[in-house]
Write a structure and sequence with these properties.
Blueprint lengths: L22 E9 L4 E7 L5 E8 H6 L3 H11 L10 E6 L3 E6 L7 H8 L4 H20 L2 E2 L8 E3 L5 E3 L6 E2 L17 H4 L7 H16 L9 H10 L15 H10 L13 H5 L9 H6 L32 H4 L8 E2 L9 H8 L10
Helix pairs in contact: 4-6, 6-8
């Protein structure tokens, strides 16, 4: 597509504050479920962002309108240094555009595929980053529900941030019908269609800890049914003989407690402070982490941190019977501009909320 230098299309939807013509599209840096992710430059400010470009026909064909609209709505309510924050959202006749913080380090899945395993020091730092982001979400009544390596991205300093809020939800007492997620990282209570809360996110952290330590996930299978059968058949627990050289038994205990099949027995079921107070993390320098003044034990290489083979065309999975004009109303109100928000909701205020001094609940 190259740099966006074309004249504006006068069929742009809803007269957005911004359009794609306000940005230079520099190069593709990733692929999402509905289109490509670009590195872009806002022409006026010369600032760089990651821009998700989502084909509306593909969103509708995959019955994911509620997911993309839910993500935009939730992202407009949250802001935190360990989350990939939304800066702008707009649309035209064919696409939705979501401008996010630019993370140049690639996602954790890519680096896991390159390294196969991580050290205990690296894993502890990754977990601390994730827990810090989850703490903010959970204090504000949100469960992510799809924590996995693909949805964790590195900044240039080696700090991880949480992204992809398509199936995130405000916590509700009756949510057993919501069974979305990724098999392998999905908590048993979600797979079994039970009501669930913040503990589902900590189960996923446990899966990743197990994966970083051993090089494999605790429950394997070719599909959701097989993985569910594995979970129901046995409770995975790391034994002393499973712990590789260089790893502590405290780390194994932490992972084991996160992987408990029953949510009421799982570390984190009582909140993020329970996780942070485990012996493995108790002495971690949380304040320095939030300030991002610690040296990360894993630094992404400076070259491109993604697999170029994933960038294919998106003409598949589109319902040929759909008409562009008939679907436009499904995306009404997609526009967002973070720079028009009241300055009192800046990042420093959000950090105070995270500290527990103010834990307002987000409206559903």
């Amino acid at each position: 597509m190259g740099n966006a230098q074309e004249k504006p299309n006068h069929q742009e939807v809803d007269n957005p504050i911004l359009s794609r013509y306000h940005f230079n599209f520099i190069n593709i840096i990733g692929r999402g479920g509905f289109g490509r992710v670009w590195k872009v430059e806002l022409k006026k400010s010369k600032k760089f962002y990651a821009m998700k470009e989502m084909l509306k026909l593909r969103v509708v064909s995959k019955r994911s309108v509620s997911s993309v609209m839910n993500e935009r709505r939730l992202l407009s309510m949250i802001k935190h240094p360990f989350i990939v924050n939304m800066q702008y959202a707009f649309q035209d006749r064919e696409n939705l555009y979501l401008a996010m913080d630019l993370m140049t380090g690639g996602d954790l899945r890519y680096h896991l595929s390159q390294n196969k395993r991580f050290t205990e020091e690296q894993t502890k730092f990754f977990v601390a980053c994730i827990i810090t982001g989850l703490e903010y979400l959970h204090i504000n009544g949100i469960i992510h529900r799809d924590i996995k390596p693909e949805n964790l991205v590195f900044d240039h300093k080696g700090y991880l941030r949480i992204t992809d809020f398509g199936i995130s939800k405000v916590i509700a007492p009756e949510n057993y019908r919501d069974t979305s997620g990724t098999p392998g990282y999905m908590a048993p209570e979600v797979m079994c269609r039970q009501n669930h809360g913040m503990a589902v996110d900590y189960f996923a952290v446990g899966v990743m800890g197990y994966e970083f330590m051993t090089g494999r996930r605790p429950y394997l299978g070719r599909n959701r049914k097989e993985i569910k059968e594995q979970i129901l058949a046995r409770q995975v627990q790391l034994k002393k003989s499973d712990v590789p050289p260089g790893w502590s038994m405290e780390a194994a205990d932490f992972i084991n407690k996160l992987l408990q099949r029953k949510a009421q027995n799982r570390l984190g079921n009582k909140g993020p402070s329970e996780v942070k107070n485990h012996a493995w993390l108790r002495d971690f320098q949380w304040k320095k982490l939030l300030e991002k003044s610690l040296d990360a034990p894993f630094l992404p290489p400076r070259q491109e941190n993604y697999d170029a083979r994933i960038f294919s065309d998106f003409k598949d999975e589109i319902d040929e019977s759909l008409v562009q004009e008939s679907i436009q109303g499904l995306f009404a109100g997609y526009q967002f501009d973070s720079h028009l928000l009241n300055s009192k909701d800046d990042e420093s205020t959000v950090q105070i909320k995270n500290s527990g001094k103010s834990s307002r609940r987000l409206a559903s």
